Every structure is written in structure tokens, then in C-alpha cells.
């Protein structure tokens, strides 16, 4: 990989800015000053210092976030705080959220630079489950469980794929879906006469929201966690 591309990709500045840093002798590769922007390096094995700071190579990045209410699942917005705003040290990595959680919905959200991973997780054909904990204004019964299993019809006439509804209390449930239509969980409960007052995603595929990840906290995912998203 070209040295200037490596530095720009890892947040050291624009391509023009990093070329100036290289020209001024501010960049070292394996403890040797390099002044050529087109210098070819092995990003996996070579050590790169920019203005004395080591630049850690990242191929594809995966972040797990316990999303708080009040922020939107977007990369940028002029009116509201976004999930990207919560993690300033990762903003230059061009992360995007894997699916969306409504502004007032909390819980498990994955952000990544890997577009293929996002496609695989979100495609209904891949059958990756998403499980939510919800509190309701209204109650559900065993009949509601059967309705969800058969496929709820939304207000626009769309027939949802079968969903698994688990009743914890008459007004507290867990629901597992494989789709991600706009406000889907809320609209499913509206269709059976209940209103969702609190919603939190607690699982994607085989990955549960870590118990030690506080609301608003985030960290890089392990390889095992990444694999568990796609394999139950």
C-alpha cells in the first residue's frame, strides 16, 4: 500500500496533508524517515510513525456499541447527535451502522467498515435474528404469540415474516425478528393494540449484548464475537 494512502486511511489527514507531512520528514517506516508519498509498505508488518505517533493498521473495523436513547443511527446529521459522534477516536475510519435503531431505542448496535458483513447480516435471506426487549402500554397473550408466529400485517399492508414472541410479563416481552422495516417492532405491536414504551435490542444472531457494556459504552469486537453474529 502507498504510504500516503495508508496515512490518509488511518486519519492522519487528507491525501494532500499527509503528503506534506511525508515531505517534511515527519513520517518513519521501521525507524527510517521516508520522504516519498508513493513508498510501498506492508501495512500488516511495517511499523509506521507519524509525528512520533504509531499508526496502528486496521483492515476492517468492528465496534459494538450499547446505544443510548437520544442519538440516531447515522454517520452524520446536522440536527441530532449520531452514534459516530459518541466515538470521536474512530470517526476517521468511515464506520457505518449495521442496520438502524430508532432514536429512542437502546441496545446492541454494530458499526463496521465492512460492507459485505453489513449486507450479510441485514439480508432477510441470511436469517440473522434480532432480539428485542420491550415494555408495553397494553398487554399481550398467548393469542398474540400465535399472531406473531403467523406473521403480523403492518399498517401499510406489509406482511412480516414470522416472529418469535416470548412473554415475560403481560406487558414485558422479548421478540425476535429477521427483518428491519422502518419502526417494525413498534408497528407490529400497534397492529395488535399495544404501544411500545421502551425498546432495547439485546441480541443479533448468536451475539448477546455484553452485560458489562454500559449504556453509551463501546469497544472493538473480538473475532469470536464477529463470527457469532452470523452463526447462532
UniProtKB/TrEMBL annotation:
EC number, as in UniProt: 5.4.99.-
Record-linked Gene3D superfamilies: Alpha-L RNA-binding motif (3.30.70.1560), Pseudouridine synthase I, catalytic domain, N-terminal subdomain (3.30.70.580), RNA-binding S4 domain (3.10.290.10)
Record InterPro entries: PsdUridine_s_RsuA/RluB/E/F_cat, PsdUridine_synth_cat_dom_sf, PsdUridine_synth_RsuA/RluA, PsdUridine_synth_RsuA/RluB/E/F, PsdUridine_synth_RsuA/RluB_CS, RsuA_PseudoU_synthase, S4_RNA-bd, S4_RNA-bd_sf
Family: Belongs to the pseudouridine synthase RsuA family.
Presence of the UniProt keyword rRNA processing in the record: no
Species this protein is from: Macrococcus bovicus
SUPFAM superfamilies per record: Alpha-L RNA-binding motif, Pseudouridine synthase
Molecular function per GO: RNA binding; rRNA pseudouridine synthase activity
Gene Ontology biological process terms, A to Z: enzyme-directed rRNA pseudouridine synthesis
Keyword terms, alphabetized: Isomerase, RNA-binding
Isomerase keyword on record: yes
Sequence ranges assigned to domain RNA-binding S4 in this UniProt record: 1-69
UniProt-listed CDD domains: PseudoU_synth_RsuA, S4
Protein name: Pseudouridine synthase
SMART domains in alphabetical order: S4
GO cellular component: cytosol
Pfam families: PseudoU_synth_2, S4
